[in-house]
TrEMBL record:
Keywords: DNA-binding, Transcription, Transcription regulation. Residues 18-116 form the HTH hxlR-type domain. PANTHER family: TRANSCRIPTIONAL REGULATOR, MARR FAMILY, TRANSCRIPTIONAL REGULATORY PROTEIN. It comes from Actinomadura fibrosa. Gene3D superfamilies: Winged helix-like DNA-binding domain superfamily/Winged helix DNA-binding domain (1.10.10.10). The keyword Disulfide bond does not apply. This is Winged helix-turn-helix transcriptional regulator. It holds the Pfam family HxlR. PROSITE patterns: HTH_HXLR. InterPro entries: HTH_HxlR, WH-like_DNA-bd_sf, WH_DNA-bd_sf.
Length: 126
């Protein structure tokens, strides 16, 4: 079953909940936040994104970029050069999201040690 059909429900209001979960799923993907943070600063080429997101595979980066473009969060521009030059830039909708992503990443940074301590305490107790 495709992802497009997974959210079909008979519940009243189910469409809104589905749309919310789809949107959150897209922007909370492992690599999506990094891509959005990089592309909000201005046009970025694929190889620049690959270097900025250490650990991402070329395939995963490609899939992430396609998904974000499909959802209207990125614009992909291909320049007719040899070899072709491709740039990605955040849309206005993605730039609106930027402040929230920045807040989320700052929160994660502030609480990184707290989370590590909580994990250690949990693991030692079980």
């Amino acid at each position: 079953m495709s992802q497009r059909n997974e959210c079909v429900t008979g519940d009243v209001g189910g469409g809104e909940a589905c749309s919310l979960m789809e949107a959150l799923g897209r922007v909370s993907g492992k690599w999506s936040i990094g891509v959005l943070m990089e592309t909000t600063r201005g046009p970025v080429r694929f190889t620049e994104l690959e270097r900025a997101l250490s650990g991402v595979s070329r395939r995963m980066l490609t899939l992430t970029l396609r998904g974000l473009e499909r959802d209207g969060l990125l614009v992909r521009t291909v320049y007719p050069t040899v070899p072709p030059r491709v740039e990605y830039v955040a849309t206005e909708m993605a730039r609106e999201l930027y402040d929230h992503l920045l807040g989320l990443t700052e929160w994660a940074e502030r609480h990184r040690a707290d989370i590590a301590r909580a994990r250690d305490a949990y693991d030692n107790a079980t």
